[in-house]
Amino acid sequence: MNVSLYEKIWMWAAGGLIVAFVVTVLVTSVGGALQPPSHVETIDPTTVFTDARFAHQGVTTTAPGVTVVTVAMTFAFVPNEIHVPAHRPVTFRITSTDVTHGFEIVGTNGNTMVVPGYVSQFTTTFDRPGEYLIVCNEYCGQGHHLMSAKLIVEEAKP
Ligand code: CUA
Question: What's the whole-model pTM score?
């Protein structure tokens, strides 16, 4: 079979792109632990604060780590300040009472969309103690730029 040089170049370039895309997905998902929040759990957005799963916001110890329950609403996160231990798995459970918000822990791989009617859940581990900014990264209205919270990662007590 006689394939022209130009056609060969295009075929190799297209094949190379496919390999590059697959490698990108593998590096970010396996290497960077970046995964879509695939936890499908529904909730009635109008009764979030009386729902047993979200009635108590904040941090609870759930071996081997902790679980953080957070509610997102225009234009705040409840609670506004979260303290978690370093080097232990932290599971975030977040839902919205109104519109779609974002929940991004700046400088970490903690980042999820918060859609009303659903519980967003992800687990991550923080190796660097310190103060992190949590921001809403989905435009949610006039006060979107004011919507933030603080995450304090504390070195575990010996
Ligand atoms: Cu909430 Cu933007």
Answer: 0.79
